[in-house]
Amino acid sequence: MANPTDKIDRQTPGVYRRRIGDALVTTINDGFLDINFELLRGASLEDFQGLMRNAFRDGPPRLTVNAFVIQTEHNTILVDSGGGSTTVYSMGRLPENLRAAGFRPDDFDTVLVTHIHPDHTSGLLDTEGKPAFPRAEVILHEDEIAFWSDKSLRDGRSAAATPYLDSADRVLETHRERFRPARGGTVVAGVTLLPLPGHTPGHCGYRLDSAGETLVMWGDTVHVPEIQIPRPEVTSEYDINEPLAAENRFKIFDHVVKERHLVTGGHLHLPGFAHVVPNGRGYQLVPEAWMVEI
Q1: What would the pLDDT profile of 170-191 be if each residue is shown by its tens digit?
Q2: Cis peptide upstream of residue 271 (ω within 30 degrees of 0)
Q3: Within a domain: residue 187?
Q4: Helices (H), 79-186
Q5: What are phi and psi for residue 82, nearest 5 degrees?
Q6: C-alpha distances in angstroms, 288 versus 228, 254, 260, 264?
Q7: pLDDT tens per residue across span 96-147
Q8: 148, 201 Cβ separation under 8 angstroms
Q9: Quick check: is 10 in a domain?
Q10: Does residue 246 fall inside a structural domain?
Q11: Nearest to 31 by CA among 67, 77, 69
């Protein structure tokens, strides 16, 4: 008899659905991204390793990369788009997982972008470099457009931005006419943009409110939940403004704790929904259990 584990090296499609009031939110996994401890700031290597061990995770962090679909009565919305086909091998699974979840590219009327980093926006382009979601308007903070459009970044003045200038240019060139810049407030019925600058100048989250229930989607507020939730002061070399990124991480943590809001983010492990509670001088993530019924 053949070994049933032969040639099985990946999970079934990374898709998980949850209702928020009358809306349906689907987590769509795009893959993962491995990083080194050396990218993190604000604590010692021994501290980072200890926090990972406390979470029963050995070795350097492996970041989950997720996008999300919000379905309401009037809209089908994609939140971020993963790494696409132009980044590392471990990302780019969004198209196949969207198909597995029953979505087609032309189903989407809106894309909400948290920020223009390649693991969140390179999936806006198909394998031919054309817009992957042909009907969709793309909403993002106006400061994000302004920052990545600044040609003077090419002089290297922002070390955190330099590695991502080419991928940002591709998104700007192909989607500028599709952009709807925003500064905050309601951007789609039931969805509010939450400015959370620091990681990038126009980094933001989104809050979904429906039938008395709320979901806060905090973008890249957290890259490594095992480390940055118990130690919110920890930043990374990905952050354009590290002190501001940490400040806004504390603020959004305080807010969701006080309001007891459900949260999700592009780098929370599947199924991707959780609550945050205080724990000493930091916080603790309480992941929501997998729901068999939607």
Answers
A1: 999 999 999 999 999 999 999 9
A2: yes
A3: yes
A4: 94-100, 118-121, 142-148, 165-175
A5: 70, -170
A6: 18, 19, 13, 10
A7: 999 999 999 999 999 999 999 999 999 999 999 999 999 999 999 999 999 9
A8: no
A9: no
A10: yes
A11: 67
Q: How confident is residue 89, by pLDDT bands cut at 50, 70 and 90? A: confident
| Assigned token pair, 169 | 């240019």
| CATH number of the domain where residue 102 is located | 3.60.15.10
Predicted local distance difference test score (pLDDT) of residue 10: 79
Establish if 140 belongs to a structural domain.
yes
Question: What angle is formed at CA 38 by the lines to CA 34 and CA 39, rounded to 5 degrees?
Answer: 65
- The answer to whether 275 touches 286, Cβ cutoff 8 Å, is yes
- The whole-angstrom separation of Cα 75 and Cα 31 is 26
Strand 110-112, strand 137-141: pairing: parallel
Domain assignment of residue 228, given as a range: 15-287
pTM of the predicted model as reported, rounded to 2 decimal places = 0.95
> How many structural domains is the chain composed of?
1
